[in-house]
Write a structure and sequence with these properties.
By secondary structure, this protein is an all-alpha fold. It contains six helices and no strands. α2 runs antiparallel to α6.
């Protein structure tokens, strides 16, 4: 039985296409995180300062443990959506969104938290779809 290495896909796709796919994966997993965090700061969903005046109008106070867990979940959901779109099954994105809604169902009763999750999920989905779309355009 012959084992193949990860580099066996290079001749199939070509180094340009493979590097483009990996570049999109890097964008989706890391750089989009920075964009979403920036949007959260802009919309006032998380705080950058700790003064009472700054946190008075926040929808949700900062919980670093929850923020880090949400960041990891967001990275995973964007990688899955990116892979599904490049694989040609963009309709499966609904499955990812439904699974996320199912796991957070009880916590969505709190309006501020529901808005925080909704904004994060929509931004995450938007950026994952856009990066996958542009990668597909450049692959053709």
């Amino acid at each position: 039985m012959k084992y193949s290495s990860i580099f066996s896909v290079v001749p199939k796709f070509g180094i340009y296409k493979l590097s483009l796919i990996l570049f999109g994966l890097l964008l989706v997993s890391n750089e989009v995180n920075l964009l979403i965090r920036s949007c959260f700061h802009t919309f006032g969903l998380i705080s950058t300062k700790t003064s009472p005046r700054e946190t008075k109008y926040l929808l949700k106070p900062v919980d670093t443990k929850e923020l880090n867990a949400g960041r990891v979940i967001g990275i995973l959901e964007r990688i899955i959506m990116y892979s599904m779109i490049l694989g040609g099954s963009a309709g499966s994105i609904g499955f990812v969104l439904a699974a996320k809604a199912f796991t957070r169902f009880r916590e969505l009763d709190e309006r501020a938290f529901a808005e925080y999750i909704l904004v994060g999920t929509l931004l995450s989905t938007f950026f994952a779809v856009m990066v996958a779309y542009f990668v597909q355009v450049f692959l053709q």
